[in-house]
Design brief:
CATH architecture of the largest domain: Up-down Bundle
Number of helices: 9
Order of helices and strands: EEHEHHEEHHHHHH
Number of strands: 5
Number of domains: 2
Strand order of the largest sheet: 3-5-4
Shape: globular
CATH topology of the largest domain: Four Helix Bundle (Hemerythrin (Met), subunit A)
Radius of gyration: 19 Å
CATH superfamily of the largest domain: GntR ligand-binding domain-like
Strand content: 5-15%
Structural class: mainly alpha
Helix content: over 70%
CATH class of the largest domain: Mainly Alpha
Mean pLDDT: 88
Largest sheet: 3 strands, antiparallel
Low-confidence stretches: 1-7, 213-217
Amino acid sequence: MTETLGDQPVVVAIRDAIVRGDFVPNQRLVEADLSAQFSASRANVRAALIELANEGLVERVQNRGARVRAVSIEEAVEISEVRMMLEALCAAKAAERINDEEIAELEQLGETMRQAVAGGDVVGYSGLNQRLHRRVREISGQRTAGQVLERLRGQSVRHQFRLAMRPGRPSVSLPEHLAIIEGICAHDPERAQAAMRAHLESVIKALREADGDPLRG
């Protein structure tokens, strides 16, 4: 039986803590400490760390236990390139499947994103950004792509958050997100797919620029 933290499996609790940044890259993950922190048995913590290692969030070092895996800019770019292909597929599928209620939801989400950028709420906008991408995946009904994307998101989330915090970045990404919403809500798969690809290409460019190498921009 899977040990839980309330209604939450231990692996989910540790994964969320890594994604939130409670544990920093290369930080050691000591089973005894995690067992106490999450009120879980050592066996369940060990199993959770093995699962997270398979997901790419944790790495196990011989004779030194586990630590949070550091993701380089280059790897974050590679992840974003894979995301671009899969999220473009999901955007096209979402445009085919979306219903009137979901159209209203995405349009309201776009308006809330506008208000967040206008009000300078960068953290709030970052959360809305993640919510939009998640809803596009859900509306698409493409479960396999959605599962892969969720695992990739966890690996690159720190870079995505740092990117979202860069001055001026929300003003760049907002029209890209609104174009995605417009294409999906118009039931136009090609337009939605192109808008999603353009957005992720912009993310990749910004990640490379953040790495300080203008030749990669």
